[in-house]
Amino acid sequence: QVQLVESGGGLVQAGGSLRLSCAASGLTFSSYAMAWFRQAPGKERDVVTAISWSGGSTYYGDSVKGRFTISRDNAKNTVYLQMNSLKPEDTAVYYCAARKTNFRRTWYSTTWGDYDYWGQGTQVTVSS
Question: Is residue 31 classed as helix, strand or coil in its secondary structure?
Answer without folding.
Answer: helix
